[in-house]
Structure formats: C-alpha cells, structure tokens
Amino acid sequence: MGTEGQTEINYPNEKGHIKIDWGRQGGIIFAYIVILLGYYGIIANTMLYDIYGHWISFVDMDKTILFWTYTTYLTNFFLPALLLFGICFLLTYKEDIPQYGIKASIWVVPILIIEGFIFYALMFGFSMEPIYLKFMRIEGYLDIIILFALAISGAVCGMKLKQYTNKRKNI
C-alpha cells in the first residue's frame, strides 16, 4: 500500500480507517506532549483548590509548586510521578535500541524544567525568583534529582522488560 511515513486512506467500500504512520519520531513527540500537558496539568488541577474545595486564582497559589513539584506528589496521589515514570518506560520499551529510549527519556527532565519557567513567566511575569527557587535552594536541586531518578528508573525498567520479553521469545 503506502510507504513508511505516509498517510494511508482506505476507501469507503473497504473496511478500515485512516492510518497515519508517524514512525519513531512521532511517538517521541507524542510522549513529550503528553508529559508537558499532563504533568503540570495534574498538578494545577489539584493544587488550585483550597481546603474547602473552592477554586482559587493562580495569583493566590503557592508559586513554589512550579519548581518544587515533588511537594505535590502526596496531594496528587503520585499521579505526576507515575505519568513521568510510565512515559519514560514506554519511550524505552518501544525502541529496538534501548539507548535511544533512555536518551529521549532523559531529555524529558530539562523540558519539564523549562516548562516550569515558561508557566511562571506567563502567570506571574518575568523575575529572578524562578532562578532562585530552582537553582539557589536545596529544594530545587532535590526536585531535579527526583525528576531524573523517575525518568531514568522508568527508562531502565522499560529496557529490562524489553530484554526479558525478547529472551522469552527466543527460548
């Protein structure tokens, strides 16, 4: 039918659907979009409510949750951490060469950090406070270490499961 990277359309008399083959890069881009929207989306949807369940404005929210996201994990039932772990797991599991998936997983962390700076600039304007919160406080470095640990552990688990399933297939 079609070659790789092209759109394949079935005609009305054929049973099927529209199929777009994005290849390897499309999967990585899709995973990045899910992480970028989902990670801070989960945090924002649970942290923008007060203890009585009333919505609060982002101006009144705690500004540190954009840079110390690990502080919200208990409130969010570890959903952002599980999302990051799961996406990094899938990025590595789907790759034939696991190093590509590990590399793509590691790049998720700087993108998340940059996204935190962008969200802060959009919500509160430009200032030096984000740099202070992320790079001059121990909590910022702890957040970076936790993000890298989640990404690398998800990627390594994906690699190990792929190796295990390949070994089981060959036996």
What labels would you give this structure?
2 strands; mainly alpha
Helical run tally = 6
Task: State which percent range the strand residues make up.
Answer: under 5%
**What is the 3D shape?**
elongated
Radius of gyration: 20 Å
Compressed to H and E, one letter per element, the order equals EEHHHHHH
The low-confidence parts are: none
Distance between the termini: 34 Å
* Total separate domains: 1
Which structural class best describes the helix and strand composition? mainly alpha
Question: What do these coordinates show?
Answer:
With 171 residues, the chain is mainly alpha-helical. The chain contains 6 helices and 2 strands. It has helices at 23-47, 79-93, 98-106, 108-124, 129-135, 138-170; strands at 7-8, 19-20. Strands 1-2 form a two-stranded antiparallel sheet. The longest helix has 33 residues, at 138-170. The two termini are 34 Å apart.
